[in-house]
Amino acid sequence: xxxxxxxxxxxxxxxxxxxxxxxxxxxxxxxxxxxxxxxxxxxxxxxxxxxxxxxxxxxxxxxxxxxxxxxxxxxxxxxxxxxxxxxxxxxxxxxxxxxxxxxxxxxxxxxxxxxxxxxxxxxxxxxxxxxxxxxxxxxxxxxxxxxxxxxxxxxxxxxxxxxxxxxxxxxxxxxxxxxxxxxxxxxxxxxxxxxxxxxxxxxxxxxxxxxxxxxxxxxxxxxxxxxxxxxxxxxxxxxxxxxxxxxxxxxxxxxxxxxxxxxxxxxxxxxxxxxxxxxxxxxxxxxxxxxxxxx
Length: 295
What we know:
By secondary structure, this protein is mainly β.
């Protein structure tokens, strides 16, 4: 990782009026947005003419109470903001006016995610329900309930991930498994189990909460899913294809235990040197994991 910009003094435009709850980058990477603890949405532009030093563009108080979720749409034209209100507001990225509002009818929003083509918009709530909307038509398509196998008790949704062709959606939260659903029918396609026997001395025991997830593939292979959890683990599953047997239980194919705190975020990076997972969390470290096909 190469540090290309650093906060230098009190005139640096990235300084905020309070601590930051969430950040997001526009798809073309020329804008950075942040939500602060005081409910302000701040946007900076990044361009070569300014030597990539961020320049403030917009600063306003959002209409969402307790805003903590922030996301650009894949086309960069919209910004989604979720929080303590049972609604997620969609802002026009240029004017920052609210252009749409999606309700989370049963609770406050705890996770939001767009499909890769921007046609679907998912909202997870603290009662364990994921609401999948047609973003353009503002039509509710599916309601998926995060439930443990053999139990009808829903749990808080903390992370949502769509695969590359948007045929599958994975839901992570306060369970010992990650259910994967068909976006077309809502049918359960797989249960990814997070509890397993492992001789690694650093492997913690107990039930972890899933804080982050990302789908990826290696050289066109089947869909793989990586997660970060509250047991300090990075886990990877071979999810397979949407045509596999419904509801099949799958164990992780590889695990990482280098973190000493909750793994709060994980992303997949393709680089000339190879394909990597980057994970970061409460232990203040960022780890780079090199991926090999035979894993």
